[in-house]
Write a structure and sequence with these properties.
Blueprint: E1 2-4, H1 5-13, E2 22-26, H2 30-47, E3 53-59, H3 64-72, E4 80-86, H4 113-122, E5 128-134, H5 142-150, E6 153-155, H6 164-176, E7 181-182, H7 184-194, H8 202-216, E8 221-222, H9 224-230, H10 237-247, H11 251-261, H12 268-290, H13 295-302, H14 306-316, H15 321-338, H16 346-360
Parallel strand pairs: 1-6, 2-5, 2-6, 3-4, 4-5, 7-8
Helix pairs in contact: 1-2, 3-4, 7-9, 8-9, 10-11, 10-12, 11-16, 12-14, 12-15, 13-14, 15-16
């Protein structure tokens, strides 16, 4: 059974629900992998109050006999087994995974390591809980299908910047940890911040939200101002600020941000993307406004948060449609010519400055 990490965590935290004895977490989003491990352990402790929890950990290459002992061992004094298996060799795409000799003991002579592993996790006693953490697995394989038949396969994939439906449950869960909630403006601003990143840095956001809780104190409704105060260290914020400075027609700030970014030539592509995205949004919004579209229609059509749509409508009034179109054409030409490389790398930053000055500095 496939389930997303946020759905699995929500179900695990519900009172009265059951805690599976085998869970397979798949994906390289560290936040979700960490959250599943911690939440499972807390749930086991809650369901078995007073019971000692014996922790066993296995990673990469290990002896399957030792894993068998961890799963089936029972202490004379009672207690539970909490077994964590990280990227086991039997599920890795290696040539020797199917011929590894570490199946001695009770395993069948002709049984492969993979078969022995699947047999072990298919018959887990009531006193044992097993978490298998995988960076990846090919779901077309028989191993993945067998695991899916006996355990929830929890998707721990990074959230892309455009997957707002996945981001919102994360923000809600984080705020609820402190008995608080984000208002609409705060959520929209976070959404706007992470739009400059390919993947949302969840672990970083978790730490920054903890700062918001400390900053807000007894206030339990967090606003956009709280977000601005605490998110100054987000790697993508400087790029976000560049786009916002251009939208607000703040030439001085825009040039200061460009000067800071050009110290690292690798940031040029992201800076160009952010500027282009900001101007494309204003162009789309301005065209829709010219046809009489209202805020809710613009938000729905462009799949934007209503708060973001409102700001875009305000900023679109700062420019003419013609000036935005010309800037987008100039940026497209710059994107093409900058790929050729060679010569002085500073020229592309200078050209980006010229385009911004021509647009933002125009009367």
């Amino acid at each position: 059974m496939n389930v997303t990490a946020d759905q699995f965590l929500a179900n695990l935290r519900k009172k009265g629900g059951s805690c599976p004895h085998l869970v397979v977490a798949i994906g390289n989003e560290e936040y979700y992998q960490k959250a599943i491990k911690e939440t499972l352990k807390k749930r086991i402790a809650f369901d078995h109050k007073g019971e000692e929890l014996n922790t066993w950990t296995f990673e990469d290459r290990f002896n399957l006999v030792d894993l068998r002992e961890a799963i089936y061992s029972q202490s004379f004094f009672g207690g539970l087994n909490w077994v964590i298996v990280s990227d086991p060799f039997v599920l890795a795409k290696t040539k020797d995974a199917a011929s590894d000799p570490q199946t001695k003991g009770k395993s069948k002579k002709k049984e492969s390591p993979l078969e022995a592993f699947l047999e072990l996790v298919s018959d887990i006693p009531a006193t044992t809980y097993v978490l298998v953490q995988l960076s990846a697995i090919d779901k077309r394989t028989s191993a993945a299908k067998k695991l899916g038949a006996i355990a929830p396969l929890v998707e721990c994939q990074p959230i892309k910047w455009y997957q707002t439906k996945a981001l919102m449950p994360f923000l809600q869960e984080q705020a609820e940890r402190y008995g608080a909630r984000f208002d609409q403006g705060a959520k929209a601003l976070i959404e706007d911040y992470v739009a400059a990143a390919n993947e949302v840095p969840l672990l970083f956001l978790e730490r920054e939200i903890e700062k918001i809780a400390l900053f807000a104190g007894n206030r339990k409704i967090w606003t956009a101002d709280d977000v601005r105060q605490m998110f100054s260290q987000l790697p993508q914020v400087s790029n976000f600020a560049l786009g916002r400075a251009i939208e607000e027609r703040n030439l001085t700030l825009a040039l200061e941000l460009i000067a800071a970014e050009r110290k690292n030539d690798a940031k040029f592509v992201l800076a160009l993307y952010v500027v282009t995205s900001s101007l494309r949004l204003l162009t789309q919004v301005k065209a829709m406004m010219a046809k009489g579209a209202r805020q809710d229609e613009i938000a729905q059509t462009l799949k934007k948060n209503p708060y973001i749509a409102k700001l875009a409508m305000q900023h679109a009034r700062n420019y003419s449609h013609e000036s935005l179109q010309k800037a987008l054409v100039d940026l497209a030409v710059l994107a093409i010519t900058s790929r050729s490389g060679g010569g002085d790398k500073g020229w592309k930053w200078s050209r980006l400055e010229e385009i911004i000055i021509a647009l933002v500095g125009r009367d």
